């Protein structure tokens, strides 16, 4: 039998085994998901790339299989339900696509990817109905773990790990001093780097903990307690891991401790921590193995679901409406992304009273990264009294994927250089302040601002919101990133240099606007 005929026969047989009431709704769902996948294909490709190539998100490759298993557990309960398209679910699809659009046109990947996943979830509600969605509530919610999110926690986790590590190091009798995320010991200077923050293990444990809490507990109190343990235990364990590396280095050397860390702590230690979490939680499991995974009786008899289910619509109409929504948001996105602000042919650093431009030589070269900027400029000012300030300007005609002022790896800390993030700095004038360190001893204070329209802020989140608003309104507004920086020196502090420079420069908003004004 030819392969095409055999495949068609198998598909026909599978469809024949489906209850008649499910055949057309499942076809509508398949077509609806295909439309949404087509619209958001770029975001799904980006997510898949992160699942496969980023160690932080490798655990997500297991999530589709987990979702399929969770669905299989619910097949008996679903067989007793009759799917019916529900038009309020289309409002959820529209809201999800609006979130996707906001992220897509402003370059906020998390928003675009979250919107892409939410659109699939609400498509199930719209095309299969409220009762089916109630039976699939947990698998639908668990789909959110497909979104690769968590890197935003890295700086905070670095600081937490550093504080736990210094406390354990001193407690164990090793003399040590902490400076931000750097810990100085007799064996050497140790850095709690991004890779040591423990974020990858934390988010994997949250995904595992959520699954276990759902399958093994009925009590919401026990579920909450187990989730608290799933969050706290990996954070504490990561502090122990970092302390162990430092402690071993005191007697065995840094190289031996680093190798031991990657082999034992990187694989065995956290496997033991995961086993410990499950072992501690096992004695409190209160769901019997034969307990139904779905309360089909409640779904069938719920007065609330019965009342809400009255807002039904034909499956064909729901699919047509979903397709129209996808097309409308696609066209809106194309129009919004086409808007770029005009820029001058070149930009120049302005004059600052009492300060003169100087060379940019440094003991450790420093240059921020603004890969997607249309114009960029780096210069140094000095005032003749020993104060020196580096000024970096980057101008963007628009904010989009690959052209984001606040994207990961962009800004004051350029990846692949001797500079490392040390600690945050509470800065004035609305800036985002950060201390950087190179070579273990050279320190640099950086202040970052973003300018878009009337907005002047150091908050990347506020910039993203302003970008979203401008794109939706199709306004042409350039975005400027300004980074002021000074090295810490014995004769003059970095804070003093920057404060004096800011006082002389005057209002920063007007200063930045003047550089991007088109003649």
From TrEMBL:
Pfam families: DUF3485 (PF11984), Exosortase_EpsH (PF09721). GO terms for biological process: proteolysis. The keyword Cytoplasm does not apply. One of its GO terms (cellular component) is plasma membrane. Residues 321-508 form the Methanolan biosynthesis EpsI domain. Its EC number is 3.4.22.-. The chain crosses the membrane at residues 26-45, 57-73, 85-102, 122-147, 159-178, 198-217, 224-244, 264-285, 317-335. It is a multi-pass membrane protein. Keywords: Cell membrane, Hydrolase, Membrane, Protease, Transmembrane, Transmembrane helix. InterPro entries: EpsH-like (IPR013426), Exo/Archaeosortase_dom (IPR026392), Exosortase (IPR019127), Exosortase-1 (IPR017540), Methanolan_biosynth_EpsI (IPR014263). It is an enzyme of class 3 (hydrolase). The keyword Hydrolase applies. One of its GO terms (molecular function) is peptidase activity. It is found in: Cell membrane. NCBIfam families: 8TM_EpsH, EpsI_fam, exo_archaeo, exosort_XrtA. This is Exosortase A. It comes from Croceibacterium soli.
């Amino acid at each position: 039998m030819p392969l095409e005929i055999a495949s068609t026969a198998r598909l026909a047989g599978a469809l024949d085994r489906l209850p008649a009431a499910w055949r057309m709704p499942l076809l509508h769902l398949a077509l609806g998901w295909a439309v949404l996948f087509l619209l958001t294909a770029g975001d799904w490709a980006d997510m898949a790339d992160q699942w496969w190539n980023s160690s932080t998100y490798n655990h997500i490759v297991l999530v589709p299989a987990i979702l399929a298993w969770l669905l299989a557990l619910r097949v008996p309960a679903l067989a007793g339900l009759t799917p019916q398209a529900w038009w309020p679910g289309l409002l959820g699809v529209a809201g999800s696509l609006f979130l996707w659009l906001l992220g897509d046109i402003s370059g906020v990947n998390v928003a675009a990817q979250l919107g892409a996943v939410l659109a699939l979830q609400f498509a199930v509600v719209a095309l299969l109905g409220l009762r089916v969605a109630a039976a699939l509530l947990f698998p639908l919610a668990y789909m959110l773990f497909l979104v690769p999110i968590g890197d935003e926690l890295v700086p905070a986790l670095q600081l937490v790990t550093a504080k736990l590590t210094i406390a354990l190091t001193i407690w164990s009798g090793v003399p040590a001093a902490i400076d931000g995320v750097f810990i100085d010991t007799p064996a050497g200077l140790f850095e709690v780097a991004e890779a040591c923050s423990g974020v990858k293990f934390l988010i994997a444990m949250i995904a595992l903990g959520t699954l276990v809490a759902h399958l093994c507990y009925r009590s919401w109190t026990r579920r909450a307690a187990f989730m608290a343990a799933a969050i706290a235990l990996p954070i504490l364990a990561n502090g122990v891991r970092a302390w162990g590396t430092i402690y071993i280095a005191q007697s065995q050397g840094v190289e031996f401790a680093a190798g031991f860390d990657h082999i034992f702590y990187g694989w065995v230690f956290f496997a033991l921590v995961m086993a410990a979490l499950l072992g501690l939680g096992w004695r409190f499991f209160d769901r019997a193995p034969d307990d139904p995974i779905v309360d089909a009786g409640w779904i069938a008899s719920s007065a609330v679901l019965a009342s809400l289910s009255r807002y039904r619509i034909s499956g064909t109409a729901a699919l047509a409406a979903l397709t129209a929504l996808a097309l409308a948001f696609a066209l809106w996105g194309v129009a919004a992304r086409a808007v770029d602000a005009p820029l001058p042919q070149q930009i120049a650093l302005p004059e600052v009273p009492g300060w003169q431009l100087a060379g940019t030589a440094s003991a450790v070269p420093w240059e921020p990264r603004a890969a997607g900027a249309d114009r960029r400029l780096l210069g140094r000012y000095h005032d003749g009294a020993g104060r020196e300030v580096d000024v970096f300007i980057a101008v963007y005609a628009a904010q989009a994927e690959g052209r984001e002022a606040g994207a990961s790896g962009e800004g004051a800390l350029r990846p692949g250089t001797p500079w490392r993030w040390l600690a945050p700095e509470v800065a004035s004038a609305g800036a985002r302040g950060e201390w950087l360190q190179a070579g273990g001893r050279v320190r640099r204070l950086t202040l970052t601002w973003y300018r878009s329209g009337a907005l002047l802020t150091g908050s990347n989140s506020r910039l993203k919101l302003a970008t979203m608003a401008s794109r939706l309104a199709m306004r042409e507004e350039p975005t400027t990133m300004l980074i002021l920086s000074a090295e810490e020196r014995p004769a003059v502090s970095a804070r003093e240099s920057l404060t004096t420079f800011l006082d002389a420069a005057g209002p920063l908003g007007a200063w930045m606007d003047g550089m991007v004004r088109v003649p």
